[in-house]
Amino acid sequence: MAENLKLARLYFLILAIVAAGRWVMSILDVPYARGTDKMSIVIVTLFSSIFYGAFCRRWRGFKIMQAAVLGATLGFAAQVVIFLSTLASYLLGLETYFNNPIALNATEAVPMLSALGLRAVGLVVNTILNGIAGALGWAMGALLPESR
Prior knowledge:
Number of helices: 6
Strand content: under 5%
Order of helices and strands: HHHHHH
Shape: elongated
């Protein structure tokens, strides 16, 4: 796990930038539908899981399970950020990209406990999906050139 956290430092920086960007867009009242696709934590994490899986296979000699665990680690970290940002949005009484009804698959405001329940499900599901993305990236890593 320590190796995964060390490898993921660049990802954690990108995650912080994207999360901060979502907070800034929320505070500046950029409509959710207009801004969410510009700074998506889920999309950046899925692509990161794929890339990390591929590069770690080719240049670090990772096995498929190592790539899957690394992808799951990235997914878990992203979901913790989303969960905590959702919680903070409610506790601070702010309307943000994290508690927007569309983000919670709803058409009207979602109560805090319901939203956190949805985020908890997302934490499990997206961790698994990113593990799968890491494994897919590992498979695609065969296309990369050998390290020198």
